[in-house]
Amino acid sequence: MPQTAPPNFANFFDGTVFRRRPGQAGLLRWVSLMALQNLRLGYLFSSTGSYELVARSMLNGALLAAEEINASSLGIRLEPSVLNPGGNLSQYSALAAKLLKREIRHVVGCYTSSSRKEVIPLFEKHDALLWYPSHYEGFESSTNVIYTGAAPNQHVLPLVEYLIQYRGDRAFCVGSNYIWAWENNRILRESVMARGGSVLAERYFAIGETDFDQAIEAIIAAHPSFVFLTLIGTSAYQFFRAFRAACRARGIDQAQEIPVASCSLSEPELEAIGEGAVDGHLSSSVYFCSIQSPANLRFLDAYGARFPKGPTASADAEASYNAVWLLARGAAAAKTDNPLAIKAEIVHQHLDAPQGKVWIDEQTFHAYLTPRIGRSNRQARFDLISEAGAPVQPDPYLVHNSSRFEAAALPSLRLVS
Q1: Which of 91, 89, 96, 92 is nearest to 128 (CA)?
Q2: CB 398 within 8 A of CB 184
Q3: Which of 81, 143, 210, 384 is paired with 343 by a 20 to 30 Å CA distance?
């Protein structure tokens, strides 16, 4: 309970007593404490556009976290401002600038790597923090970004190891024409070739493209061990449908003979693919709804109750949820919304997150996360088939995991089904 203030003094929310005419130090502390009672942050997610399903789930995860934090005893009250770039790359920078001009110093958002790279210079200019909650291709480290999604050693490399061991070493790559696909395909190519395999071809398409007939014909003719898919949004959903239909027409059991493997496929997207083409796909991720832990069951119950119309939770929704909780805990520990002070504190915060233990690496400001691989089923969910025994240190530059070296240190995943 706050102590009673004597005359000419004032109480504040944490029980601290100040003179009514504080000196400069007291005034600065008072401003910082008041900022925590109204900690403004931005949410920058494309809730419309070609990848809106995942982005809406990300927004839902971030909104849920803010509501839980505001109802908790943490001593922080968040005030999110939600803006929608609509999947338009130029709108990301315009809307990020709008938030920063309002002196909002923390923004959770962006899904695509192109949107992240578009806004990073603005955060660096304004000494603000972007909390980036999506798996990505790595090879980046900005002092103004906290990365709560998977780095390449936490999703691409575990998938390569699984595919080569259980599916074969002849890859065919199909992706959206931007850095996410380019870099992931490069990592996969180097990893596969270092193990004596080959990449038969790479095909790239504009985001939103839905005509894949020629590429599908080429895949069937080449009959690779697997297709590595880095298409996003509506492009990916249509590819799954068209590829399954083309294989079925030729008597090919696509899921068994030419499986599709991805590092981005999530539950709301399985629902969008629809019956008839939803099962048998491989996804490398750090989170699946099928994780049977008390923390995840609580998360799913709260998420479903708050957003009954969906979209279903996803790995990126969980990363957004974690980002907001890490921000709030860092602010509570720092007793300020100052980005530098919060960065110094978040490396000491450990979350009992839906996926398991999550914390931030103090060297890279990426997250320790638990790699998993799932296989999609007809209920538009994933059956876990392998997972790491503990959270894996992020290695965004693959310094310790480079496929260029024979003695690569890779996450050890155990089969679970």
Answers
A1: 96
A2: no
A3: 81
